[in-house]
Amino acid sequence: MKQIAVVMILLNISYGHFSRTQSVDIDEPHTYTPPRHYFQTSSFDEAELEADDVAKNPLDRGPYFDISASRNVTALVGNTAYLNCRVRNLGNRTVSWIRHRDLHLLTVGKATYTSDQRYQSVHNPQLDDWSLKVLYPQQRDSGVYECQISTTPPVGYSMMLSVVEPITTVVGGPDLYIDTGSTVNLTCIVKHLPEPPPVIQWTHNGEEINYDSPRGGVSVITEKGDITTSYLLIQRARSSDSGKYTCLPSTANPMTVHVHVLNGEHPAAIQGAKGLRSNNILPFVLPLLLLLLMGLRTFPVR
């Protein structure tokens, strides 16, 4: 009996030591903390995520979105647009894109699920990116798009696409009247571009303006920003400076203005003469009217 009691005591001591060893292994803290800008769904509050997930290993928490990129994308009409969605720890889940306007499913994985083939899914495995590619976007394509992970329940990350059409205007157009000897100031304004146009070119009657020509007194000043403005200055205007001037932004539509350098004329008189010259049928109509009047006098109505 004493021998049995000694064996039982030894077993209890060994079991207790084994239990304590296992409890230490289970409670051992993780050494990796995910970056603060990673979270699982756009609907979660970051403070809640820190409290719940700060001690979790990312491999244990499932898929989540990297929200370091901008949620607002601006694209130019006709130029391909990309909505970038970066998903970490995707595993065997899939990524889909949904258009909020009509809740239309656009892509699932790499496949397009809409008859509009302008929408395509582009996957970059090195960066964990699932981008929605929109070919030839139009202004009607503007709106909210959601990148969605097929978890249970699904989680999504929304982005705003703004498709804009650039507008080019020349202040005071389409006709400008300048007195001889005055300074011509043509102001070209370009709006609604994602970034300023690299180059704005000016032409006179279809030919590029040479700012170093012997004529002199011709210069251009361009201010770039959200709204880009280009000023064409022509000092001591003369009659040869009259004609068609076109502002040509490299990434926007051109705009033309007609400059009339006056040599004592009145703008109304120039417009009247211009109207007469453009009416080519008038020289033929006047003789016919005269013949008709003469015929009525020769043959009076009975």
From TrEMBL:
The UniProt record lists the Ig-like domain at 63-162, 166-258
Pfam families in alphabetical order: Ig_3, V-set
Q: Which SMART domains match?
A: IG, IGc2
Q: Which organism is it from?
A: Anopheles atroparvus (European mosquito)
Q: Which residues form the signal peptide?
A: 1-16
Q: Name one GO cellular component term.
A: neuron projection membrane
Which BP terms does GO give this entry? synapse organization
Gene3D superfamilies annotated for this entry?
Answer: Immunoglobulins
Could you confirm whether the keyword Signal appears in this record? Answer: yes
Keyword set, alphabetical order: Signal
Q: Which PROSITE patterns does this entry report, sorted A to Z? A: IG_LIKE
The identity of this protein, by name, is Ig-like domain-containing protein
